Amino acid sequence: MHVTLTHYLILSALLFSLGLYGVVTRKNAILVLMGIELILNSANINFIAFSRYSGMRLDGQVIALFVIILAAAEAAIALAIVLNIYKQFRTVNVDEINKLKE
Amino acid sequence: MNLFDIIFYFFTAITLVSAGIVVISRNIIHSAFSLLFTFFGVAGIYVLLNADFIAVAQILIYVGGILVLLVFGVMLTNKVVSVEIKTGTLNTLPATLLVAITAGSLCGVFYATNWKVVEGVSDIKTTTNSIGEIFMTTYLLPFEVASVVLLVALIGAALIARKDKILK
């Protein structure tokens, strides 16, 4: 079967679903972050696939670069917050963290 | 089925299998390392879509930056020397239902929609030059704003994560 736009879109849908499953089910905050990275990657596949199949207009690729930039910023901030939570509560399980302060 | 299709299915298999290991594995270190293969597989997909610059940026930023950051997080927040590295799950059954419905409806919509495709890619050349031009013309303001956002986010992350509070 010849690869078309639909193949890429279905790949990104499956990757999005796996990321969503990780975000919903995992207790560890870092694994939730990994699920978010999967979701961002699936969105990027969509952007670049549409960019390729619209006659190689590069706007989709530029947006994908912005997504990568914001993913880097998000990962840095989120890891800093997770480290602070670990210092406060000695755990990073999101189901046990239910206080804003001690 | 030509070579292009075989390579596409190869990278798709790498991406989906390792992403499955990321979300299902009980061992957080296994999750972190299979995320590496997911990022490589997605970079391969980008190459197949003629996005060479994005593929290299993906490997540099995701594998070299974000994944190393995540592994640091794993090492700093888990007791690696003891057996506490396993992590639990919750709400598995409702989550499976939700994800199955989401995946099914997304795939159905993607499959049923009649996408208008422009196939005009005759000469394949590198995209780096054109992306640079677009960044410096059409997307100049978002580019500058993104650079400031990244700078502020990194300074903020360093300030949040440091041990001694300088702001009393």
Question: Mind explaining what this structure looks like?
Answer:
The complex is a heterodimer of chains A (102) and B (168). Chain A is 75% helix and 0% strand. Chain A contains three helices and no strands. Chain A has helices at 5-25, 29-52, 59-89. In chain A, helix 2 (29-52) packs antiparallel against helix 3. The longest helix of chain A is centred in the last third of the chain and has 31 residues, at 59-89. Chain A is elongated. Chain A starts with a helix and ends in a 13-residue tail after the last helix. By secondary structure, chain B is mostly helical. Helix content of chain B is 72%, strand content 0%. Chain B is built from six helices and no strands. Chain B is globular. At the A-B interface, helix 1, helix 2 and helix 3 of A face helix 1, helix 2, helix 3, helix 4 and helix 5 of B.
Give the terminus-to-terminus CA distance of chain A. 59 Å
The radius of gyration over CA of chain B amounts to 21 Å
Please indicate the percent range of residues of chain A in DSSP E strands (runs of 2 or more): under 5%
Largest sheet of chain A: none
Residues in helices of chain A, as a percent range: over 70%
Tally of individual helices of chain B = 6
Structure at a glance:
The complex is a heterodimer of chains A (102) and B (168). The longest helix of chain A has 31 residues, at 59-89.
What secondary-structure arrangement, pairings included, does this model have?
The complex is a heterodimer of chains A (102) and B (168).
Chain A lengths: L4 H21 L3 H24 L6 H31 L13
Helix pairs in contact in A: 1-2, 2-3
Chain B lengths: L2 H22 L3 H21 L3 H26 L14 H21 L15 H9 L3 H22 L7
Helix pairs in contact in B: 1-2, 2-3
Task: Quickly list its features.
heterodimer; A: 102 residues; mainly alpha; 3 helices; B: 168 residues; 6 helices
